[in-house]
Each structure stands twice: as structure tokens, then as C-alpha cells.
Design brief:
With 431 residues, the protein is an alpha+beta fold. The protein folds into two domains: 154 residues; 214 residues, Rossmann fold. Helix 4 crosses helix 10 and helix 7 packs parallel to helix 8. The longest helix is centred in the first third of the chain and has 30 residues. The protein is globular and about 55 Å long. The termini are far apart.
Length: 431
């Protein structure tokens, strides 16, 4: 911007006088400007108080699904059921339109403790910046205002979301292994008993529930083995669920939250363009799904088997490519002062995509994890799950039937392979 006093026709002496006067005015005005900025940037002391939020539940958003299988909701209420891992006295939620291509209009939301099915006890309304409704731009998330709600560890929470218009569930976690509900027409967020039109087994739009626990949070990032494929639906028997229960039951200082960011069919190094419900690769989604988690204190990393089985059967990707990916995830986690627990890749002989060449890559990766010790802690789940007489194969008692994914007993054994006390020490920052 050129001020009139500094026009090109002005003499040099006049320019100097004008500049000096301008400097004097700037210097004289600086204290007032600084005071004004300080006042504008300084909220009341109570508003600046640090709130120590911890994610008590979470999932990883993916999508959009193929058009033929995309769910649509119109003037309806969703009631989504999630299991808390730690308790608190206040709660908030995170909704996501991160995979959407149009704005997402939310007419209202509520949260309560589920008493059974689609029925809740006290059902408390949620707001967003003081407003009951919110429009979430395409590609963005939204966090609700906190509300007072007593949440016990392992309580089932019901999050109700009302959509006054028609929305497409383009942002979704596909494999919930949990019955969720959609209502008949209308806003039923305040209703204790939802008038159910149908149930479904995915989590659209909801990606996190936080409590004011001030507890460290372990984020479990991975693929279908972390997502719980092969476990009993509605029973919370994924390995991160079992680990959360172990932490609470076996340690005196076990108030540690566990958040599951596994996605079925997810890979570390590449997307599956034909199946976007498998999500972006972990290197791409890492900042959102790990670092952005409220209260994150560490990463549990179990991924890589899909990178192997989706590569060419006779000439799969080399172990060095996976090792480079692990090193990147380790370094990016440690940049934020967070520890990493790694996990060996599970046996999969008999699985439909098993070949000796792919098995050789798995063995090489596991050997590197054990010998190079790149992680702060290692859970040797290969050793815990394999058949002693045929170590390339899952133990029969742990096999869900496809020879890759564990059953409930297998997921419990996987969680039992986690060195609990060293993990808790890492997360609490005592080592």
C-alpha cells in the first residue's frame, strides 16, 4: 500500500520527514496496540485452565464406500454404541466429515450411558460452540462442547446424531463389530428409547469420545487383526479390548485408555484404491489417527501383513520396504516424545493368500524386529499365536477359521503377549 505522503513526486527531504513522522506515530502507538492485542488474546483465567482430555474410545474413519453400498439417512437419528476404556466425569465427542465431498449438516446430538439395545438412561444434549446444530465442511472434523456425565470404565455409551436433511455416510468405519441403530423419521436424540427402523454394523461419522480422565492413552494402529475381524460381534473381544481390561485388572496404576485405530484391509505403505473402506495407508493417516488423539501417550503398532499378501505372490515386496515404513512411523512418533510398542506379524499358513515367498518376507520382518530392537517394546504375537508343531500356522485353538484372523481366544492370547508393566511404565513416562 502506498500512502499519499510517499507519492513518487515527493522530494527526498519530504519523504524522509514523512517516514520519520510515521515511525514516531508507530512507536507512540505500539504500547496501546500491544495492550489491545494482549487483551484480545487473553481470555479469563478460568477459560485458560488446561483441560486434560483423554480419548476413551475411538475408531479410524475411512471411505467413501462404493455407491451401491453407501448408507443414506434422511430426517433420521442414529444411535451409535461404543465402549469406554476409562471413566471420567465430563465427556465430549468428535464427529468427522473428513471423507465427505459436501457439507454435513447435523441437527442435534446427545450422549448417554446405554442400558441395553438402543435404550439409554440419562441422555444429555450436546452442543457445538454453544449451538445445538452444526454444519461440518467437507474434509473436516468437529468437536463438541463438553457435558457433565459420569462415565465408568467399560461403560457402553450411546451417541445419538440427528440429520434433518439427507446425508450419505461417506465417512465411515466399516467393521464395527457392534450393532448400531437408525430411527424412524424425526429427531429422537432426547429419547431414552429409540424407535428403531433398522440396525447396522458400522460407525458413520463418529470417530472419538473423550473424557476428562487425565489418563495416558495408548493408540493401537493396525489392520484387520487390530480391528477385530473374527471376534464375536457386540462382545468387545478385539485384542485392544482385552488389553484395556488387563491394564485395569492387573496393574495398580492401570488407569490407561486404549483406543483402537485399526482398519480392516489397511496397509502401511499403500492405499487400496478399489476399496477405500480400507482407509488410507498408515503412513498417510498417522497424524490424524495417532497424533491427533486426545491424551495420546504411546503407539502400539501391528501392521504389515496386508502389504505382504497384496503384493505379487511369487515376488512380493521386499522386507526392506516394510522395514523402512516401520522406521518412519517410529521416528514420527518419537518426534512427539512418544514411545512405540511394536508387534511381530502373525502366522498365516493356510490363508487364501499364503505363499512360501510371502512367508519368507514375514519371517525376515519378524527376525529384524527381534534382532534390531527398533521399538521401545516388542510384543511377540507370532510366538504367542503360532502352532508349536507348525510355526507358520495359527494354533487351531486360536483360529477364527480363515487361518489369519484369531478368534476370541486368540485375541485374548495376543493381548496377553503384551509386556504389561513395561508398557505402563513407558506410557507413564517413568522410563
Amino acid at each position: 500500500m502506498i500512502f499519499p505522503a510517499f507519492r513518487a513526486s515527493t522530494s527526498s527531504s519530504h519523504r524522509r520527514a514523512g517516514i520519520d513522522a510515521g515511525r514516531r506515530r508507530l512507536l507512540l502507538g505500539a504500547p496501546a496496540l500491544a495492550a489491545a492485542l494482549a487483551g484480545a488474546a487473553s481470555p479469563p483465567a478460568q477459560a485458560r485452565a488446561v483441560q486434560r482430555w483423554s480419548a476413551t474410545w475411538g475408531c479410524a474413519p475411512a471411505g467413501p464406500p462404493p455407491a451401491a453400498s453407501t448408507q443414506s439417512f434422511s430426517n433420521q437419528t442414529l444411535r451409535l454404541i461404543v465402549r469406554a476404556s476409562v471413566g471420567g466425569s465430563r465427556v465430549r465427542i468428535r464427529l468427522s466429515n473428513e471423507r465427505g465431498s459436501t457439507d454435513l449438516r447435523v441437527g442435534g446430538a446427545a450422549i448417554g450411558v446405554r442400558s441395553g439395545g438402543a435404550v439409554v438412561g440419562a441422555n444429555l444434549p450436546l452442543s457445538f460452540g454453544g449451538s445445538r446444530a452444526i454444519t461440518i465442511p467437507a474434509g473436516a472434523p468437529a468437536v463438541s462442547d463438553p457435558v457433565a456425565l459420569a462415565v465408568a470404565p467399560f461403560a457402553d455409551l450411546a451417541v445419538s446424531i440427528y440429520f434433518p436433511g439427507t446425508v450419505q455416510a461417506s465417512t465411515i468405519h466399516n467393521a464395527a463389530y457392534q450393532a448400531n441403530y437408525v430411527s424412524t423419521t424425526g429427531d429422537h436424540t432426547a429419547s431414552a428409547s429409540l424407535p428403531v427402523q433398522r440396525s447396522f454394523a458400522s460407525w458413520p461419522f463418529l470417530t472419538e469420545v473423550d473424557v476428562d480422565a487425565g489418563a495416558p492413552v495408548l493408540v493401537a494402529a493396525g489392520d484387520s487383526v487390530t480391528d477385530g475381524v473374527g471376534s464375536t460381534s457386540g462382545a468387545n473381544r478385539r485384542w485392544p479390548d482385552y488389553l484395556a481390561r488387563r491394564l485395569q485388572a492387573e496393574l495398580s496404576n492401570g488407569r490407561i485408555a486404549v483406543v483402537n485405530r485399526g482398519i480392516s484391509a489397511n496397509r502401511m505403505l499403500a492405499d487400496t484404491e478399489s476399496a477405500m473402506v480400507a482407509g488410507n495407508d498408515l503412513l498417510e493417516r498417522f497424524d490424524r489417527d495417532v497424533l491427533a488423539t486426545a491424551g495420546v501417550a504411546g503407539l502400539a503398532l501391528l501392521i504389515g501383513i496386508n502389504d505382504i499378501v497384496y503384493s505379487p505372490a511369487s515376488a512380493p515386496l521386499p522386507a526392506d520396504a516394510l522395514i523402512a515404513g516401520y522406521r518412519q512411523l517410529i521416528e514420527r512418533t518419537r518426534l512427539h516424545g512418544l514411545p512405540v510398542m511394536g508387534a511381530t506379524l502373525p502366522p498365516f499358513s493356510g490363508f487364501v493368500y499364503y505363499t512360501p515367498a510371502r512367508e519368507a518376507v514375514r519371517q525376515a520382518v519378524n527376525a529384524w524386529m527381534r534382532s534390531a530392537a527398533p521399538f521401545d517394546l516388542l510384543a511377540d504375537i507370532d510366538l504367542a499365536l503360532r502352532d508349536a508343531g507348525a510355526p507358520q500356522r495359527l494354533r487351531a485353538a486360536y483360529d477364527s477359521g480363515d487361518h489369519l484372523h484369531p478368534n476370541d481366544a486368540g485375541y485374548e492370547a495376543l493381548a496377553a503377549a503384551v509386556p504389561l508393566a513395561p508398557l505402563a511404565a513407558l506410557l507413564s513416562g517413568t522410563v
